[in-house]
Request: fold
Amino acid sequence: MNIQAAPVPRRKQNPAAVKQNIIDVAIKEFSAKGFAGSSVNIIAEKTDTSKRMIYYYFGGKSELYRAAIEHAYRKVLGREGDNGIEQLNPVQALEALVSIPFRNRENLVCFARIVAGENLLFGEHVAQIEGFRELNEPARLLVQDIYQKGVATGDFQPGLNPLIIRWFLNAIGTFNVFNQHTFKAAFGNELDGPEGQELLRQQMVKGLLAIVQR
Reply:
């Protein structure tokens, strides 16, 4: 009598985990090669799933790219929300915001590169991300709230546009990451190591406070 073995049940994948795996790989691939230089085939090979599932969850390369950008922004913006900055006094809060990109420099590499790549495309894809401005609104409101508290306590001078503070924070963070190699090649590595980065962080704190304080 032939006894057939019971069929082995297929392992059911967690859709959320599958999508996250795809996004994580896509961020690294897009940040390294840009939109044009990246391939869904290569991304699929580096994931725990298949090309078919990438198209099933995201629809195509452009949609995956936009999802990767959105996730990268959410991750970086989340760092500001997870540091208890709102509980600090205004001066301490601005110092904490300046410090984030210096103390998370290596974790910001992919973000800085994917943002730089999108700027080369003139923001074509972020303009198509539904709710992209709303996604970034908490970052603007956080700085606005800190500034208004500082004005109320007499620490900051009135009449400034808080969006300029936001620009300053974004500028120093991204420049320090994606310009590190060209800056080092041009001027040496004096500011590249831990001591140099700490010195630079301290000076950027002083620079921002010089703008906002009375």
Q: What stands out?
A: The chain is about 70% helix and 0% strand.
